[in-house]
Amino acid sequence: MRRFASKSLIACLLAGSTLFSGCYGSFALTKKVHSWNGEVSSDKFIQWFVFLGLNVIPVYGLAVAVDALLVNTLEFWTGENPAVGMATRVEQNPDGTATIYRGDDVFTAVPVAEDRVEIFQDGQRVGVAAVTKDGGLVVTDEAGNVRLEKASL
């Protein structure tokens, strides 16, 4: 009977951790696995076979379980998701600019057009972020090198 009680307590604690995490978190680890699967190949059939393999092994199942039981719970209590990496906080300023805090770095985003902002750090321009015609995002550094390119926002 005592063994049943301890197993029941553990089950309740595990269930409670998912309930108290808001039942729905960002599932960043699962999204990383999914994103990696999409980058394996541009061939959709290879992506599909890798997807099936990741389900048979159960990489997706483990990622969802770790997200639900641990990562989303930590995100709920601390406000930061350890699977995402460094936390980024954005504050909108009254003058239309935005201040971006990422770790110890502080950036300022200054709108220069409806679909483009210049990014400054310590008063120096360090790059430009622009929305593409198809709704994507391209971030370039001061030399014009693409630092980030997303197909959609």
Tally of distinct domains: 2
How many β-strand runs? 7
Strand order of the largest sheet: 1-2-3-4-5-6-7
SS strand fraction: 25-35%
Specify the helix fraction band. Answer: 40-55%
Distance between termini? 54 Å
General description of the model:
The protein has 153 residues and is α+β, with helices and mostly antiparallel strands. The chain has two domains: 2-78, no CATH class; 88-150, no CATH class. The chain has helices spanning 2-20, 28-39, 44-56, 59-78, and strands at residues 88-92, 98-102, 105-113, 116-121, 124-131, 137-141, 146-150. It has a seven-stranded antiparallel beta sheet with strand order 1-2-3-4-5-6-7, with no helix packed on it. Strand 1 and strand 2 form a beta hairpin. Helix 1 packs across helix 4 (59-78) and helix 2 (28-39) crosses helix 4. The radius of gyration is 21 Å and the shape is flat. Mean pLDDT is 75; it is low at 11-23.
Give the secondary structure arrangement, pairings included.
Layout: H1 2-20, H2 28-39, H3 44-56, H4 59-78, E1 88-92, E2 98-102, E3 105-113, E4 116-121, E5 124-131, E6 137-141, E7 146-150
Helix pairs in contact: 1-4, 2-4
